[in-house]
Amino acid sequence: MNRPPALALIGPTASGKTELALKIAERFPVEIVSLDSAQVFIDMDIGTAKPDRATLARHPHHLIDLITPEESYSAARFRADALRVMAEITARGRVPLLVGGTMLYYKALVEGLAELPAANADLRAEIDAQARLQGWPALHAELARLDPATAARLSPNDSQRIQRALEIVRLTGQPLGELIERQARAELPYRLLTLALVAPDRSMLHARIAQRFRVMLAAGLVAEVEALRAKYRLSAELPAMRCVGYRQVWEMLEGRLPAAELAERGIYATRQFAKRQLTWLRALNDAGRLDGAFDLAETATAEKILPMIDRQLAGQTGLPPHEHA
Questions:
Q1: Domain of 309: which CATH number?
Q2: In the structure, what pLDDT confidence band is assigned to residue 183 with cuts at 50, 70 and 90?
Q3: Four-point Cα dihedral 206, 46, 239, 69, nearest 10
Q4: pLDDT for 137-149, tens place per residue?
Q5: Residue 61 forms beta bridges with which residues?
Q6: Which CATH number characterizes residue 128's domain?
């Protein structure tokens, strides 16, 4: 109880995390820390659903716009950056509010990271070449033989994570899961209240995903990707262009996806991404690391969450809960 408080608001894409986070920021002395692996990229705004400039001016977000789309950003780097930023926020007498849906980042922050081997460029190129010849589902099948536990939680087309898991097995001869299980758990130096927005009715989340992706297209997502291709030296293998939405636009611009199918393919890919996020959330809930899960369909969600935050922050500023605004 002597640890300073922190808040985390997690959930699948399109579940309304940002809107709720802004309501929290209007009432409590928090600073928002992005928990989103796509928002770290500069100039990738529409497809990552970054808050607009007016919102950022009123409520600055930490850990967005950190690197160019030519670069890579790891969970280990996120943990180091997040802990540094959180300490700075706490030193200002305020409270970190982590917001996003990158469950790997959340897990890395809360539990620490295994000491995994560094990326091997030659081996990654070899795996990419194999994928071009055989397809990622074939490599997923190989991973299922070598590391069945990891393969079971990955989509057969989750190229980035399949590549990393195969890379680790080939470098170490050991499954990723076994390496992670042997790690020493690194305790988070905060009293963390974790809240999640979930969707018991999957059809509602699907409708929200479809609407948001169409809004992104109308807002100029294709033009955004065209501008990125003109400004940076990009390839389809880079993490930035593997992000949901960007990958489908890239395929269209390369002539591998008919323009008429872009919306449908982008929506489907986003739904699959949300499915993986919900799988992570269920695992968190089973392990007892969620303080509360709230139906995103409930109009009273904010009214249920805000009192919990009141109680978490009581005493932090020396004011009664209702005076935290």
A1: 3.40.50.300
A2: low
A3: 180
A4: 999 999 999 999 8
A5: 32
A6: 1.10.20.140
